[in-house]
Design brief:
By secondary structure, the protein is mainly beta. Helices cover about 15% and strands about 65% of the residues. An 8-stranded antiparallel barrel has the order 1-2-3-4-5-6-7-9. β4 and β5 (about 105-120) form a beta hairpin. The longest helix is centred in the first third of the chain and has 19 residues, at about 1-20.
């Protein structure tokens, strides 16, 4: 009995260590250009973004990338009213490399849960609000080397029926 348990644990540990060799971790930085309703809310000011990600190569040009991103839009002033917005997103992307290996041109599609925070200060009162919504992304990227890549992505989040947190994201990814 002990031998079976020990053998099973050894096989499991070996399988996990082999699987772990396909994981790579990295960082990303981005500039988010607001679109639609978000553009009006932040007075067209771009928001910097930072994040961390992992990549798992499935082979034949297919890759999964879980990610955690934070974007903060600078304060926008409308007379005595000041507005700011930020989002924290946890999600994942599917990457398809055209060349069939993790280099060169790729397409990406993704989904994330995004926690949006909005604030209005000035005037008679300070108003803040937060909401969590599902966001979708799609875009194209280029992996220049094993460690450096660039991306252009469209991000979409429907905050309310008449307010969308859409942005065009220009990003750089670094695999460690």
């Amino acid at each position: 009995m002990k031998t079976r348990v020990l053998t099973t644990l050894t096989i499991l540990a070996a399988a996990l260590s082999l699987q772990a060799q396909s994981w790579h971790y990295g960082l990303q930085g981005a500039v988010n250009l607001p679109l639609t309703s978000l553009k009006d809310y932040v007075d067209s000011k771009p928001g910097p973004g930072l994040g961390v990600h992992g990549t798992y190569d499935l082979g034949d040009g297919h890759m999964l990338r879980p990610r955690l991103d934070y974007t903060a839009y600078p304060e926008a002033a409308f007379g005595s009213i000041k507005r700011k917005a930020s989002s924290l997103s946890l999600g994942g992307d599917y990457l398809f490399f055209i060349a069939g290996k993790p280099e060169g041109l790729y397409l990406t599609l993704g989904a994330a849960g995004s926690r949006w925070s909005f604030g209005n200060t000035g005037g008679p009162a300070t108003v803040t609000s937060s909401t969590t919504k599902v966001g979708l992304t799609g875009g194209v990227g280029y992996q220049w080397s094993a460690t450096l890549g660039t991306e252009l992505r469209f991000t979409h989040t429907r905050i309310q029926s008449d307010f969308k947190g859409d942005a065009l994201q220009l990003g750089v990814t670094v695999r460690l």
